[in-house]
Amino acid sequence: METISDYKNTKAVYLQSLGAAQTVTGSKHLLKTPGLNILIDCGLFQGIKSLRQKNWDKLPVDVASIDAMILTHAHLDHCGYIPLLIKNGYKGKIYMSPPTRDLTELILRDSAKLQEEDAEKANRHGYSKHHPALPLYTTADVENALPHFVTINTGKPYSLNTHISFQLYVAGHIPGACSVAISCYGKAIVFSGDIGRYHSELLPAPTHPAKADMVVMESTYGDRLHEKGDTMQQMAFMVNETIFNKGNIIIPCFAVGRAQDVMHILYKLKQQKLIPAAIPVFLDSPMASSASKVLLRYPEWITISQKECEQMFSGVTINQDYDGTERIIRQKGSKIILAASGMLTGGRVLEYLKHYIGDQRNTILIIGYQAEGTRGRALLNHAHEIKIHGLFLPVKAQVKEIGDLSAHADQAELMTWLKAFAPAPANVFLVHGEPGAQEVLRVKINSEMHLDACILKQDEAVWLFDVDEPASTSV
């Protein structure tokens, strides 16, 4: 592949990853064409400190040169940088599905609020190296971003100019999540976004167009298969074992997607009398509560009835504030607590960990992907202690994992998704994965499908094809 540095051609299309290249988070993929520059996703880096610091760096492209943006879904590593994009000069529209619009507003407001709270707490207790500690962006920055949001329904092409249009396809990752198929100067380029599961608790299976010339594809679980087993039986066993030991079950979960899946499983377990009906279930995440209500507004995006959706919510006590968190912690007796964040990078779950991680009777149940450098990854790697708010806490609680609850397709499902294109795409570009996982998937694609699969590198612009038609710049 030729890069932009040695193939400078104004009548060509290039692809440049500004994030989620050889790492999982920070998704930002720029399609540079003679007429328009289109950004697919605009997420925050998460995980190890060297990645998180990238959020403070200036983007390697002129933000004002980006003409349009398309958002695949509402997770923070795909949408969390949007307020900074606007603050730094982006003037265009941001296209997304209707549920993604509602969920993104929730997530960005929550992200700004947490950053403001963390900065205030760091300044008050003096545990930051920065004086003063500042939030990456504020609630006001989020408010400035919201007018740029434009909703687009799936199954309908949307034209950006004479030569470029796009269409959204259900991706099955979280409610509203989509893959993006861009028709660009006669070529079909598909950006997978995050690919969901083919057998989800609440969501339909992922879809995409029949044909693609080029595919930009996530590879989070490119090197592994999810544990195959009876998820409900596994959950029931862990809950009942912890209750027998007079402990508590803490489930760190993403407020959008995993929280709702777990609530549905717990609802079914109680209905089938596989766990005690009296065991209290707390959802300590105002954002997860609000996100759950989005499901009721968009019933066409989930696979269960509205009645069942309402019933599963009715069996959960929702907490809104930190005073409530303290009351839940003080409440005697076993309980199940769902709290964000899913990778234990912040949020209410840290308060529970501080109180419960030192007691072997308790269970911390990990259910989703844990990025390198997060507390969740450390726990899965059997860390003997973790650091929370400047304190090192010994890990004595039981740390368990249910892999089949992941919202990401595993290697077999990724291959199923890719093999559904007919004919097969000419090029596959792997993003959103750690290097080891990407290399394993690259080799598997090359060997099984005989396709030219390559791994995109951070900030490197790759030439895709030349364009003969004159440029058109309207949006």
What does this entry look like structurally?
This protein is of the alpha/beta class. It has 2 domains: 12-224 and 407-466, Metallo-beta-lactamase, Chain A, CATH 3.60.15; 231-405, Rossmann fold, CATH 3.40.50. Helices cover 31% and strands 21% of the residues. It is built from 14 helices and 22 strands. It has helices at 49-52, 76-79, 82-87, 98-125, 139-145, 231-244, 258-271, 286-297, 306-314, 322-330, 349-356, 375-380, 411-419, 435-449, and strands at residues 12-19, 28-32, 37-40, 68-70, 94-96, 149-151, 158-159, 164-170, 178-184, 187-191, 214-218, 249-252, 281-284, 317-319, 336-339, 363-366, 385-388, 391-394, 398-401, 427-431, 452-455, 461-466. The chain has a 7-stranded mixed beta sheet with strand order 6-5-4-3-2-1-22. It has a 7-stranded mixed beta sheet with strand order 7-8-9-10-11-20-21, with helices on one face. The longest helix is centred in the N-terminal third of the chain and has 28 residues, at 98-125. It is globular and about 70 Å long. Residues 1-8 have low confidence and may be disordered.
Sequence-ordered SSE layout with sheet pairings:
Elements: E1 12-19, E2 28-32, E3 37-40, H1 49-52, E4 68-70, H2 76-79, H3 82-87, E5 94-96, H4 98-125, H5 139-145, E6 149-151, E7 158-159, E8 164-170, E9 178-184, E10 187-191, E11 214-218, H6 231-244, E12 249-252, H7 258-271, E13 281-284, H8 286-297, H9 306-314, E14 317-319, H10 322-330, E15 336-339, H11 349-356, E16 363-366, H12 375-380, E17 385-388, E18 391-394, E19 398-401, H13 411-419, E20 427-431, H14 435-449, E21 452-455, E22 461-466
